[in-house]
Amino acid sequence: xxxxxxxxxxxxxxxxxxxxxxxxxxxxxxxxxxxxxxxxxxxxxxxxxxxxxxxxxxxxxxxxxxxxxxxxxxxxxxxxxxxxxxxxxxxxxxxxxxxxxxxxxxxxxxxxxxxxxxxxxxxxxxxxxxxxxxxxxxxxxxxxxxxxxxxxxxxxxxxxxxxxxxxxxxxxxxxxxxxxxxxxxxxxxxxxxx
Length: 194
Known about the structure:
Elements: H1 7-20, E1 24-30, E2 39-47, E3 54-61, H2 86-109, E4 115-122, H3 133-149, E5 153-157, H4 159-172, H5 182-191
Parallel strand pairs: 3-4, 4-5
Antiparallel strand pairs: 1-2, 2-3
């Protein structure tokens, strides 16, 4: 079953198409694996035209404007030291599963002639200015992912998210070309109003 991308995913895809320069942007990619099926929200592929080396951007996008990521009951206590409530622990558990599954999927699907860039995009995450359990937990998740996989996990949250979207808005200003990206087209309309 095809799943239409949400607006947050469309913004991330537009960023990778128009700012990063990805030639291919795909949404809600699902593996064919039975039982362990996974879904990556956004995958962007950029090819260096001189070397042929590819960079594959693998993005999980959480656009929950209340500052929480996910809600639920954690299955274990692996993240208890980094989170002060069940929802935060569940969020970290879920993100860990998503990124480890994403990594398995892309390393099996794409050749290793280039690099993988894993990203979490979230416009609002509680605790960013003053620190806090969820932010500390995300930092721990980032470190664990990098230690165990050797791959970088970039947290594009709060102010960093805003800065990236501001870059996309700057690209839209004065540009009237049709890139086939609904989110970028929407920004073009807003940024080019007279």
